[in-house]
């Protein structure tokens, strides 16, 4: 059992009994942690990710706690429609949302890459753009009409502290997270006269599978990271308070503070120098 299932409830956490939350990227990491936390708060959860076996294991576990409270939808949100009958695409998940009552949407699915841009697969970079930008855009557009009709519920955007700073060798990833950051905050202001909660989350390095998926070298994956539990607790606290933005944990807050006050030209150059040493030999430009 994931440790977050045993974590204490956040003090004064919002009660979500009778609500339904759809979480993308729910098979591991922050997505799984938020699915568990929302479930503990009383919500029914719809778990969306590509790895069907992990999703079904999690749904089975949560249903043992509260029967009929979890559903698994295996999907690849980086494609419009999947040729695999066992895997849904973005259009199909969007249609599913429109046909069901959803109270909370967690836009968590995403991945990154590492290396000089010319050396990276353009197909993989475009897949990242579709998953990190297009998917939350489409799913948010799908769920908003019913949230507006009910004048309740909320949307959580998982951005990153990478949104505050251009990141050489992770240029596409930082760009996608900047989009998520600005889009989430803009929607919060756009719908400020409603009771819908819009929360943008900017975590720093977290103990998840991100480094392996992005093919980040070992020297960087050894950077001290926050636990998923720490991040989830701060996200749930911020959502309960109706906050518009949360930068979980001290390390991320410190990095965000630096990025706000150091000129971007200077900080980008420093970041490039720091990350260049992590490039494999022969990858310098």
What does this structure look like?
There is one protein chain. The chain has one domain (3-276): NAD(P)-binding Rossmann-like Domain (Rossmann fold, 3-Layer(aba) Sandwich), CATH 3.40.50. It is built from ten helices and eight strands. It has an eight-stranded parallel sheet with strand order 4-3-2-1-5-6-7-8, sandwiched between helices. The longest helix is centred in the middle third of the chain and has 29 residues, at 122-150. Helix 3 packs parallel to helix 4 and helix 4 packs parallel to helix 5 (171-190). The chain is of the alpha/beta class and 285 residues long.
CATH-level-4 superfamily name: NAD(P)-binding Rossmann-like Domain
The strands making up the biggest β-sheet line up spatially as: 4-3-2-1-5-6-7-8
Assembly of the depicted chains: single chain
**Sequence of secondary-structure elements:** EHEHEEHEHEHEHHHEHH
Strand element count? 8
By CATH, the topology is Rossmann fold
User: What is the CA-atom radius of gyration, in angstroms?
Assistant: 18 Å
Helix content: 40-55%
> Based on the structure given, which CATH architecture is correct?
3-Layer(aba) Sandwich
